[in-house]
Amino acid sequence: MTINALAQQAPFTTKDGSTIRSILDKTNAPVQNQSLAEASLPAGSATQRHYHKLSEEFYFITEGTGTMEIDGESREVKPGDAILIPPGAWHQITAASPLRLLCCCAPPYSHEDTYFDDESGAS
Fold first, then answer.
1. Strand partners, 92
2. What is the domain partition of the chain in residue ranges?
3. How far is it, in rounded angstroms, from Cα 9 to Cα 40?
4. Is the distance from CB of 27 to CB of 20 less than 8 angstroms?
5. Which pTM value belongs to this model?
6. Which residues pair with 22 in a beta bridge?
7. What are phi and psi of 6, to 5 degrees?
8. Eight-state DSSP code of residue 117
9. Residue 56 belongs to what H/E stretch?
């Protein structure tokens, strides 16, 4: 049985600029097919717009408000909202107030599967 407490997970900054605490992933559990993390962004900040070739992501907003942009469509988000980010979809989240969210990736999140405008050859 694997049980990881959020408070015991060390935060790190991902390539997109958010602060992450991995709750369950390949670095701290015998995970095979997905990862679960908590992300946080200060008010007024945003992740760098990016996409993942392989990973499908779910965001679940637990605290704060912001704007979620996926492939050019923007919507306001708040606690209790769940967001689907398909593989290959450009996305960015901007925090209107301090924002916390759960992020689930399948396959598990990896820096190598995170692409930005200057790395992708896409426009």
1. 69
2. 13-105
3. 14
4. no
5. 0.90
6. 37
7. -55, -45
8. H
9. strand 56-63
- Cis omega (within 30 of 0) on the bond before 107? yes
DSSP for 18-33 reads -EEEEEESTTTS--SS
Note the pLDDT of residue 119. Answer: 54
Query: How many beta carbons lie within 10 A of that of residue 38, not counting itself?
Result: 20
Which fold is adopted by the domain 13-105?
A: Jelly Rolls (2.60.120)
Place of tokens 């820096």: 111
Q: In what order do the strands lie in the sheet with 73-77?
A: 73-77, 66-70, 91-95
**Strand, helix or coil at 86?**
coil
- What does the pLDDT look like over 21-31, one tens digit per residue? 999 999 899 99
Distance (Å, rounded) from C-alpha 55 to C-alpha 83?
14
CA angle 3, 5, 8 (to 5 degrees): 130
Q: Is 84 exposed, middle or buried (0-12, 13-18, 19+ CB in 10 A)?
A: exposed
49 touches 24 (CB < 8 A): no
